[in-house]
Specification:
heterodimer, A: 483 residues, alpha/beta, 11-stranded mixed β-sheet, 10-stranded mixed β-sheet, 11 helices, 35% strand, globular, B: 248 residues, Rossmann fold, 2 domains, 4-stranded antiparallel β-sheet, binds adenosine-5'-triphosphate, binds magnesium ion
């Protein structure tokens, strides 16, 4: 029995990270190190408008005065920021007019990831922006979106084609000096996605970005900006994978969302960066991300849904600034840690307008030797009359060497506020799995049933295909951790 | 159908079952009685394949197949069912959905198509009527917050859905109220036919008034110390275990 289980887990071991391949494409990578010259070179390489260089340099000045945050409940050796290359792009002869010109190796990479980009095979109802290392390589369904006035392109392209829109909103949600990693990103980001939904428009399809880190010693710093104008709606998906390396790669992204009056953005992430070796903890992505949405117009809504299953270390708090009256912020999260992963994730809900509402549903699953922390802040300003928050933070433990922590912070400056917080911890036990097996249900299906039961409230927020994927991913990762 | 030959078994190297032989044929009902801690549940868990328990000697054949080489899932699919003495709670998993998963696992094994939730609901309603169970058993999560008796009824509902060849019911009667005991026993009787068999682990003669055993075995300190017919249960009820356990 024991032998059999070992061989099963070794097979699964290989399956667990099926995205661990690298692709051989010729790429152009800057020498390691970060100086003002490097920033000027990035900006020049990308032929950016002057305000952008100015933005970067301001961020760099701030960053030089800042230190990496020490408050998250994660532990890692100091990062040498001079030992990272800040620009890597698949080498291409010229600006791409069509997919035919994208390196076929890169297209194959995305196809292997289940994201076909070419015209015949592309996903019918999802528009995709594919970001390979630091550069957007392809954006599908652009024309169809353009017909209803939706702009969906890489942020580099937006800087060329719609500089005034970028200038108006970039850095208005996450200021250049917001935190150490956001400042770094603002100084050096090379690409990411840009979405603008014009007034009175419901996006006819899901919009998505897939991020892929390929090169070993580059950091990935993408920047996403989504603006949803009056009475509009968009659902946006983000997926991430990376190859297996023994060294740690830094991923420090910034995402900014803005909703104007009556607008709604639904932002979903399935994050499956390489998490490092399960036994030794060697390698894996450091995922230090700043995501924030601003409900600027009255009656607008921003909803974050995340399924975090990878990365050696995750440090991420998708947040909502509820500025307008009657605005709503939501955060639905499943964070799985196994092996030696560490996650410190949660959200911030800042209530500023009247009758603002927020809800937080966080489900943490920890297995093996991992550490999983929920950190959430609910802050209610003095003018936020009748603000309401509901928070629920549940933890599921698999095995007895892992840990789960919750750090809720609540601050209110207004007495008409209602804040509710619930928390619970449970365990997947060998006896539960035996119960399923003794009814003829496979271990795999048993784990899937328990996990999907635990994550139900979060999964139902995800678009259908994403929910199925997410569930499979979690099951696969936990199969050899239980028992 | 079931052939246990000189079985030694336990967990963590502790031998709890110390040489049991038992033969169960199609259509038979065997009752297993015995003092607390004598190894009855351990025997049931060994039969159903609990991974924490290991066989240390002897063999078990089920319809000619070596049971000890099969895992719990395979044993269930081969037709073995254990009604747990302490059914585990599984929050978040809907009871009806769990039952459908179990039912479909059998269908898939038999090369049939999975049953969709609507058809399964009909089947489930029929079985629940037979056992006099209220609708809430469909809606609630698997044993989650169930009372002791409700959990036991739910075990029998699972048995009714799975229609096992050999059911081992570990103290299914404990915790049932008088009416429930009658209804559940009648349900079990309805599920019986000449092709299946039953092992009833119980402390009480009352159950055996409803479900009449062909054989009664007394387990003490990991061994069968006495076997007999129905009458043995009556004697035990009036005299306790001392006379059988000290005889050896
Ligand atoms: N998992 C376990 N951990 C520790 N001890 C165990 C375990 N399983 C069984 N035992 C021990 O093995 C012995 C037999 O237990 P078992 O549950 O089989 O008894 P039983 O005959 O079913 O008793 P009861 O009538 O009380 O249900 C007991 O001494 C019990 O404490
Ligand atoms: Mg027992």
């Amino acid at each position: 029995m024991a032998d059999e289980q070992n061989s099963v887990s070794s097979i699964l071991e290989d399956k667990t990270y099926k995205y661990g391949f690298t692709t051989n494409v010729e790429s152009e990578t800057f020498a390691k190190g970060l100086t003002e010259e490097v920033i000027r070179a990035i900006s020049m390489k990308k032929n950016e408008p002057a305000f952008m260089l100015d933005f970067r340099l301001r961020a760099f000045e701030k960053w030089k005065t800042m230190k990496p945050p020490e408050w998250p409940n994660v532990h890692y050796p100091p990062i040498d920021f001079q030992n990272i290359s800040y620009y890597s792009a698949p080498k291409q002869k010229k600006v791409l007019d069509s997919l035919d010109e994208v390196d076929p190796e890169v297209l194959r990479t995305f196809e292997k990831l289940g994201i076909p980009l070419d015209e015949q095979k592309k996903l019918a109802n999802v528009a995709v922006d594919a970001v390979f290392d630091s550069v957007s390589v392809a954006t599908t369904h652009k024309k169809k979106l353009m017909e209803v006035g939706i702009i969906f392109c890489s942020i580099s392209e937006a800087l060329q084609e719609y500089p005034e829109l970028v200038e108006e909103y970039l850095g208005t949600v996450v200021p250049v000096g917001d935190n150490f990693y956001a400042a770094l990103n603002s100084a050096v980001f090379t690409d990411g996605s840009f979405v603008y939904i014009p007034p009175d428009t419901i996006s006819p399809m899901e919009i998505s970005t897939y991020f892929r880190i390929n090169t070993e010693e580059t950091g990935q710093f993408e920047r996403t900006l989504i603006i949803c104008a009056e009475n509009s709606y968009v659902s946006y998906l983000e997926g991430c994978t990376a190859p297996q390396f023994d060294t740690n790669q830094l991923h420090a992204a910034v995402v900014e969302l803005v909703t104007l009056e009556n607008a709604e953005i639904k932002y979903s992430t399935v994050q499956n960066w390489y998490a490092g070796d399960k036994e030794t903890g060697k390698g894996g992505i450091y995922n230090f991300v700043t995501k924030r949405g601003k409900c600027q117009g009255n009656n607008s809504k921003i909803s974050w849904t995340q399924v975090e299953t990878g990365s050696a270390i995750t440090w991420k708090y998708p947040s909502c600034l509820l500025l307008g009256d009657n605005t709503t912020g939501e955060f639905y999260s499943v964070a799985l840690t196994n092996g030696h992963m560490q996650a410190d994730t949660g959200t911030k809900m800042i209530h500023i307008g009247k009758n603002t509402r927020s809800s937080i549903i966080s489900k943490g699953i920890s297995a093996d030797y991992s550490s999983n922390s929920y950190r959430g802040q609910v802050k209610v300003g003095k003018n936020a009359t009748n603000a309401r928050n509901y928070s629920q933070c549940d933890s599921l433990l698999v095995g007895d060497k892992c840990s789960a922590h919750t750090f809720p912070y609540i601050e209110t400056a207004n007495s008409s506020v209602q804040v509710e917080h619930e928390a619970a911890t449970s365990k997947i036990s060998e006896d539960q799995l035996f119960y399923f097996e003794s009814r003829g249900i496979s271990r795999e299906n048993a784990i899937e049933a328990v996990i999907s039961g635990f994550c139900k409230e979060v999964f139902k927020q995800l678009p259908m295909e994403f929910a199925v994927e997410a569930q499979k991913l979690l099951t696969l990762k936990l199969e050899d951790s239980v028992g | 159908m079931l052939e246990i030959k000189d079985l030694h078994a336990g967990f963590d190297g502790n031998e709890i079952i110390k040489g049991i032989s038992l033969s169960v044929k199609k259509g038979e009902i065997h009752a297993v009685m015995g003092p607390n801690g004598s190894g009855k549940s351990t025997m049931a868990k060994i039969l159903s394949g609990h991974p924490a328990y290991e066989a240390m000697g002897g063999e078990i054949l089920f319809n000619g197949e070596n049971l000890l080489e099969m895992d719990a899932e395979q044993r269930s699919l081969a037709g073995i069912f254990m009604g747990f003495q302490y059914p585990v709670e599984v929050p978040g998993v809907n009871n009806a959905e769990f039952l459908r998963m179990a039912h479909n696992a059998r269908r898939v094994k038999a090369g049939e198509e999975e049953m969709d939730p609507l058809d399964f609901d009909d089947l489930l309603s029929e079985k629940m009527n037979m056992l006099g169970m209220e609708k809430k058993y469909k809606e609630r999560n698997l044993n989650d917050g169930f009372s002791g008796g409700e959990k036991k009824k739910n075990e029998i509902l699972q048995m009714a859905i799975l229609e096992p060849k050999l059911a081992i019911l570990d103290e299914t009667d404990s915790g049932l109220d008088i009416d429930a005991l009658r209804v559940v026993s009648e349900g079990v009787n309805k599920l019986r036919n000449e092709n299946n068999a039953l092992i009833l682990i119980t402390h009480y003669q009352r159950l055996l008034d409803y479900i009449k055993p062909d054989f009664v075995h007394v387990l003490s300190k990991g061994k069968i110390v006495k076997s007999g017919g129905k009458g043995l249960a009556l004697e035990l009820e009036s005299q306790g275990y001392d006379w059988v356990t000290t005889e050896n």
